[in-house]
Amino acid sequence: MSNPARFDQLIGGIYDAALDSALWPAFMDRLAASLNASLGMLWMHDFSSGSVNLEHGGGNVSAVTGLDSVALAQFTNYYAARNVWLPNASQLAEGSITVSSVLYPDALLKRTEFYSDFLRQQDLFYAVGSSIIKQGSRDVKMSFVRSERAGRYRDDELNLVRQLMPHLRNAVVLHRELHRLKVLSASAMAALEMVPLGVILLTSSGLLLHANRRAHELLTRTATLRFGAGGAIHAASAAASTVLQRLIHDAVQTGVGKGRAHGGALRLVGASGRELQMLVTPLLAASSPFGGEAVAAIFCSDPAAVVSVLSRTLETLYRMTPAEAHLTEALVNGQSLKQYADVKCVSMNTVRTQLKAAAAKTDAKRQADLVRIVLTGPAVFDTGFPLVQRKL
Fold first, then answer.
1. 261-266 — which CB contacts under 8 Å span 24+ positions?
2. What are the DSSP E strand ranges found in 115-197?
3. Lowest mean pLDDT among 3-7, 10-14, 234-238, 325-329
């Protein structure tokens, strides 16, 4: 390109758009102007189905400049399937560029419906196309089209597109990878909110990085722990804070590869007498889809907590009867068979029969196994969605 500064601006625009997909239209406008093209398209084409994808968002990269909404809808819904350039474009290798006259003879183009009813209406004729990335039958493409009056694309214009291709490929790959990481982060955070324990993630400085909803609930209920300014973590008493900070320091040092301690357990007592059971443990610093570097974690639980609203889930998940599910929920919350029989005013024989049936449905051999299976299984997770019973 004769103007190095403008070329650098185009490359900068590519990588800016990779980080912020809302900038793709601005880049396409600049490149279209450099190519004297009135239409520019960054889009996805599926050769097996003949469909095109011009939707912007998610992991898809798309931008169109030079078409109004009506013409764009006409192309997407009808004329894309009649684009005579596309069938031969399927043979393009990844990273290659070509011109429309190679894909379909100019003289024959004017006899097609694609030209008569679409291209001519938009004053378009000559095109340059490229394959940025190919995956199976799908192709991320970039095309620029201009009028017949503007003439065929010159060698210097084709060389410009050719020089930009490696950067365009890098940008599309980067965009997809960033989207994948964003989805992974969102999924990880959603999974963290479903965990029945309080989870507090710590930075390499031992400060709060993130705490799930359950952790905030436990801290409010027990008044044993609080988050201070800047993410500092304090226990209710000075003595407890000293022990907690030592455990956090050891876990963080191990998390960053400077120690060998494995953390430890601690039970805190709040001003009201409520207790909080805590486990402080190191994490692998590199394994952090949470938007920062989590090197340690604190897992919290309330020893006096009651697992409620569990029976309906047990009915759906393990196909228990209502009676079996209510008994299992009572056992999980620490009731004995005798206590449950007294509360429900039923005989011990009835309760034992219900226990045997509930255990069989969870593949448990004993009462303790039944409680363990429920507490370590999906029934205690807060999914926020109704469970769907599957027929086996």
1. 263/296, 266/240
2. 126-135, 138-146
3. 3-7
Tell me, what DSSP letter sits at residue 119?
I
CB atoms within 10 A of CB 5: 7
* pTM: predicted TM-score of the whole model, two decimal places: 0.65
Residue 60 per-residue DSSP state: B
In angstroms, what CA-CA distances link 198 with 65, 240, 281?
Answer: 49, 19, 13
Count the neighbouring beta carbons within 10 Å of the beta carbon of residue 258. Answer: 9
CB atoms within 10 A of CB 326: 19
Residue with tokens 């060698």: 155
Q: What tens digit of pLDDT does each residue of 176-214 get?
A: 888 888 888 888 888 888 888 899 999 999 999 999 999
Write the CA distances from 347 to 160, 187, 331, integer angstroms: 87, 47, 16
Q: Which of 88, 73, 104 is nearest to 141 (CA)?
A: 88
What percent of the chain has a predicted confidence (pLDDT) above 70?
92
Q: Long-range contacts for 16-24 (Cβ within 8 Å, ≥24 apart)? A: 17/63, 17/171, 17/175, 18/170, 18/171, 18/172, 18/174, 18/175, 18/178, 19/174, 19/178, 21/56, 21/57, 21/61, 21/175, 24/56, 24/61, 24/62, 24/63
12, 121 in Cβ contact below 8 A?
no
Give the residue-averaged pLDDT of 112-141.
92
Angle of helix 24-34 versus helix 155-194 axis, rounded to 10: 170
Q: Helices 24-34 and 4-19: crossing angle, nearest 10°?
A: 160
Angle between helices 337-344 and 322-332 (to 10 degrees): 130
Q: Taking Cα atoms as reference points, which of 369, 346, 354 lies closest to residue 321?
A: 354
Strand partners of residue 266: 278
Q: For the residues 65-73, what does the mean pLDDT come to?
A: 92
Of 279, 286, 280, 282, the C-alpha closest to 255 is: 282
